[in-house]
Amino acid sequence: MKKGKIILIVIALFILVPIVIGYVFLNTGETLEVTWNEADFTSGLEKSNVQISNIQDINMEALVRKAFSTSGTVEVETHFTNEEMSALIASANDEVGPLKNFKVSFEGEGNGAVRFQLSERFTDFLQESLILEGGNIPFMQLGNERFLMGVQASSTLTEFVVDYITNAANNKPVYATGSLSRAGNQSIRANIDTLYVGRIPMNDYVIQRVEDEVERIANAIITEENGFYIEELRVENGQLYFKGTLPAEIHGIRMSMKTN
Fold it and tell me: In the prediction, which pLDDT does 35 show?
């Protein structure tokens, strides 16, 4: 009987240890020391000179789905701080968007870092709108090898354990470093140096796919028809410098939001 209990304990450890390790690696990661308040949101919106009736109506999903309209143009030349940009993006997405707790840090000359969590809506949003297809979002199939968010799955992890850890994509932290630059009057170029989900680094294949998708989504939005013109765009002195035009008004089109 004692021997049987020991065997059961050993089996339980073999199952639970990978689960615990996987949970820790997926749910913890790098942090950004950026804190914003309502004043940062107000000053960021004032600097943009764009009239927005409801910031939540232009969350990331609405932009990707082109569920918005614009009118007019305004000339803008300004520097946005970490707190202002974080406030604008977080305010748009925290309640109804696919991302939450968004923070951005512009570092030195040209580089930056972002951190956010995937919301409860992110799985559906990713399947319908972004870079991966299929039911198990964290998996990628390359040839005969299966990858867990860009890292080759260990043979010691059973299918059950991997599925247990990864089926729920909500609340997973994402951290990335890189740069964003002007590619043309209505286009940007994204360069991602590192990309993590929790503490798990993504491989070059995943990073390239994300870079391509960021550029595709952004460049589909910043069009001449939407009132965008980029004369200058760069990071300097720890802030984002923009010179050009933005739409005078942006109105979101209310969508029916799915809930889990």
Answer: 92
